[in-house]
Write a structure and sequence with these properties.
Strand order of the largest sheet: 1-4-5-6-7-2-3
Strand content: 35-45%
Helix content: 25-40%
Radius of gyration: 19 Å
Number of helices: 4
Order of helices and strands: HEHHEEHEEEE
Structural class: alpha+beta
Largest sheet: 7 strands, mixed
């Protein structure tokens, strides 16, 4: 009977450790608190065309295709740093995207709304010379172009 209890205790302990690690991962890659998620079923969401084109341009290191996905007054907010317009988009692209050899792999997609704009929250795995890991990029769309990207800690 004691051997049985020890096995169960170890089995339960291993489960607790796995749950704790999974919880830490979710917190590290979790959703921002200021965004309203419209559709929680990520598996049924497909990437919007400009979001898909943005990721493809990044992965192909194609700055011209990257810029073509944005409105003329588009903005990016990345961990509190704000970039706006063509110059801002190029600056961010140089310091945080194609300029640091970024590649992106989509993990999940959810529809979102914020400040009257609709779009998609895309959980991605990024590999670059500057940043490697899981992150959430919020893409807000205007027609078939990206109006705003928000990346929050």
């Amino acid at each position: 009977m004691n051997a049985y209890r020890k096995i169960n205790i170890h089995h339960v302990s291993a489960r607790c450790i796995l749950l704790l690690l999974f919880s830490i991962f979710l917190n590290a890659c979790g959703a921002p608190t200021r965004t309203h998620f419209v559709d929680h079923n990520a598996m049924n969401q497909s990437l919007a065309i400009p979001v898909k084109n943005f990721i493809t341009a990044t992965n192909n290191h194609d700055t011209k295709a990257y810029l073509a996905q944005f409105t003329s007054d588009a903005e990016i907010t990345d961990w509190g740093h704000h970039y706006q317009g063509a110059k801002g988009l190029l600056d961010w692209n140089t310091t945080d995207n194609i300029g640091v050899n970024a590649t992106m792999k989509v993990i999940s997609v959810n529809a979102i709304e914020r400040d009257g704009l609709s779009g998609q929250a895309v959980q991605i795995n990024v590999k670059s010379d500057k940043f490697n890991g899981c992150g959430l990029m919020q893409f807000y769309l205007e027609g078939n172009l990206i109006r705003r990207i928000v990346i929050e800690p």
